[in-house]
Amino acid sequence: MTLTREAPPVVTKPPGPPKRRPRDGWANAIMVAPATVLYVVMLIVPVALALYLSLTDWDGFSANPAFVGAANYVDLLDDPELRRAALVTLLVAVAGTAGLNLLGLGFAVLVNGASRANTFFRIVLFYPHVLSALVVGFLWSAILGTNGAVNNLVTRWGGEVLPFLSDPTWATITMIAVLVWAGFGVNVVLYLAGLQAVPHSLVEAARIDGATRWQVFRNVTLPALGPSVTVNIVLSLVTLLKTYDLVVSLTAGGPAGQTQTVAYLILWNSFHDARLGFGSAQSVLLMLVTGALAFVVTKLRRRGELAVHQ
């Protein structure tokens, strides 16, 4: 009997990552270069320029602005107009974000599903966002102004003129309502994308277990929409914090400057009062506050999402 030795198993080394050739690095750099240049020119350079101008007293015309250091930032602390504008901006951001997301989620649930009627209503809901904010402001000013369409009807029926844009409280509420009307179509689209990503099997399982529609929405759909809620809140907050163009066309900051937002005040100080240095300091402050709020909201939302999935 002849004994044969078995050959040792051949151990093959797993293939490593492909070697990068120098030519690949140049190709990647060329592909990324246009986006990098655009990012630097459109974001980095303006931010750096704003930081520099905020340390000067430039009026927009002088060739050599004088360096004043942190004087503009010190003046910000004693500016009553900025404090009032900050309160208005905060109110617009908080109330507007709530309105945009509640309406956006509600209508997204209503028009979710494939049908001709839902497609039609999605177009109708998104259409106001296509219009320019200046056009939206002029449109609603013609409708709600003192001599607008609504007040003409009210006075014709024997009523008193409604101060939609002439009373500070009414004007602020009107401005928030118009902002929500003009912008919640985007939230509808984003929430629709989130609803279509919810696993259908989970919804069916909950219904088989006897859950009502509200219970399915609260316990299955809403937790699955966590990332969509975070994106919508942050986008809404950042957009509303820099509200400017609708203020110009709807209220022009009135009455008596009561509806001025920080962004409106920045451009007023920079170009109307020729204080570009002071306006740049305001814009830097707004940028920092916006970034900080977006970061905090994102962190809080992430914690909430992790708590739901645990």
UniProtKB/TrEMBL annotation:
One Pfam family in the UniProt entry: BPD_transp_1
A GO biological process held by the record: transmembrane transport
Annotated localization: Cell membrane
Family matches, as PROSITE patterns: ABC_TM1 (PS50928)
UniProt cross-references to InterPro entries, sorted A to Z: ABC_transporter_permease, MetI-like, MetI-like_sf
Superkingdom of this protein's organism: Bacteria
Topology of this chain in the membrane: Multi-pass membrane protein
Segments crossing the lipid bilayer: 29-55, 85-111, 123-150, 170-195, 216-241, 276-297
Keywords: Cell membrane, Membrane, Transmembrane, Transmembrane helix, Transport
GO-annotated cellular components: plasma membrane
PANTHER family, alphabetized: ABC TRANSPORTER PERMEASE PROTEIN (PTHR30193), DIACETYLCHITOBIOSE UPTAKE SYSTEM PERMEASE PROTEIN NGCF (PTHR30193:SF41)
UniProt record similarity statement: Belongs to the binding-protein-dependent transport system permease family.
Name of the protein this chain belongs to: ABC transporter permease subunit
Phylogenetic placement of the source organism: Bacteria, Bacillati, Actinomycetota, Actinomycetes, Streptosporangiales
